[in-house]
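Input set for joint prediction.
Command: fold jointly, output tokens.
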Amino acid sequence: MSFVWDSNILRHYLEDHPLLLENLTKVPRQHVVLPIVVVAEQLRGRADAILKAEPAQLARAQDLWQQTQALLRRFHLLYFDEQSLALVGRLKEQTRTRKRYADVLIAAQVIAGHHILVTRNTADFQDLLPAQQLQNWIDDAIS
Amino acid sequence: MNTMHIPTNKEYKVLLTHQPLHTQADGQQWRAVVLEFPSIVEEALSREDVLKQIKIRIDEMTRNAEVVILTAPALPLAQESPEKELTIQGWDDHGLFRNDPEALQLFDAIEEERDRHQVGDV
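tokens >
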């Protein structure tokens, strides 16, 4: 079982959210993983910035790419396996309300691996994951 | 609070040390300390005597004594600084974009992109 970080937790990690940092004093880094969706979103965003940068912004965009790559290398990544891939299809069929596709992909990995999703957007996942597989380290202190 | 009055024997660890007196004819000075009760100390000129004396002192001390177990607040343990605790846990790269709102704009773009890309669109 690992703690799977959603994108918004990574954001608060990078901007030093006080309660998140307090929570992290209780969690070894090797217990946290980044789902491949979150990693892909980061790399796509930084890559897009390079490809669309004006010459004056190119060095800055490249610098952010390098910093982001270095950051992501420090995390264990969570890749799709057979179980989570099968669950994506099932969750898509079960979803009755409009759901963000990235959220469904992440939820499938969390369910398949018996992980815990850490996100600030718990409302978006409440009908995808059981309560015991959902935590918010930005607004709630962990014990 | 619990009290115990059961007369039983137990073993005490006694530290025995000896050192020569001023002249060789004076022999050795023996010293015994009960490790559990370091205030109980005896000295004698032979090993046997100092052991006898220290046993008498233990007997005297325990004859009119009892062991009482008290519960009291524990001493607070020294806390590591939060920064050191984070480093110990491997979180030494936190705050990478703390003063860089431009770098964080990507996260807003990611949320917008997720909102645009709904199940059913795929």
